[in-house]
Amino acid sequence: MEIIITDTPDEVARVAADIIAGVVRSRPDAVLGVATGSSPGATYQRLAKLSAPSALGRVDFSAVTVFALDEYVGLPAGHPESYAAVVSREIVRPLGIDPANAHVPDGSAADADAAAAAYDAAIAGAGGIDLQLLGIGRNGHVGFNEPSSSLSSRTRVKTLAPQTRADNARFFDSPDQVPVHCITQGLGTIGDARRLLLVAQGAEKADAIAHAVEGPLSSRWPASILQLHRHATVVVDDAAASGLALADYYRSVQEFKPRVA
Ligand code: F6R
């Protein structure tokens, strides 16, 4: 696992956006897995600037396909906080992605289990995910794989943890409007991506980051699955890195990283 510790939250976004831009430059029809929530917001804003027609060394997202990590179950169609709406508003439109190439689990399907299975099939049909961008919950979830999620789980319906519902209440008018259920890519689904990139900012993520990066592999801290992946990168600011026992080592690895000519 590569751990990149930055001085500021802005730097997290710059580093993450550069990694994603590099993937799209080398493969213009890349398949990206995208997270919603606050953590990747500044990364998307930077990518939007890089995709602007006037940008120097412009990155073209018009042939890129995106798959969202998750979706709430039971929100009315078009609800502004549905992840379908968020992905469209914060990713698809600003980056110039073809809406036909944007996929979000169907949280209003009459048969949610079938919708979840169809989602995994759609990811496989697209050739798999080249890079999956992740945030992390304070309880260590990735996607909405809450503690106790099977480490080999596939996309399925999950029940949100009370802490997750409380944390996401800021997006809704009242806490009881936060849905109880979601469809989320499974930990096995996420682990199938060819590259994982997790971003986290702020001291409230420090405990989860410490468990994910340095704790034992455990469904108690689902993000610890990154330890199993061959190409996982964690980009955190100083505050989110503050619980890492080996932070100085990770900084020195970056300082002495061999540069490829
Ligand atoms: C969102 C998602 C979640 C969030 C996590 C952190 O699609 O899958 O895992 O990444 O809850 O949310 P923020 O970034 O809002 O703190």
SS element count, helices: 8
User: In whole angstroms, how far apart are the ends?
Assistant: 22 Å
Note the main sheet. 7 strands, parallel
Structural class: alpha/beta
Radius of gyration over all CA atoms, rounded: 17 Å
Number of strands: 10
**Beta-strand proportion:** 15-25%
Ligand types: fructose -6-phosphate
Topology pattern, helix = H, strand = E: EHEHEEHEHEEHEHEHEH
Side by side, the strands of the main sheet go 1-10-9-6-2-3-5
Residue windows where pLDDT falls under 50 for at least 5 positions: none
Q: What general form does the structure show?
A: globular
| Mean pLDDT, all residues | 97
Helix content: 25-40%
Protein topology:
Elements: E1 2-6, H1 9-26, E2 31-34, H2 41-51, E3 65-68, E4 70-72, H3 83-95, E5 102-103, H4 112-125, E6 131-134, E7 156-159, H5 162-168, E8 181-184, H6 187-191, E9 196-200, H7 206-214, E10 232-237, H8 247-255
The protein binds fructose -6-phosphate (F6R).
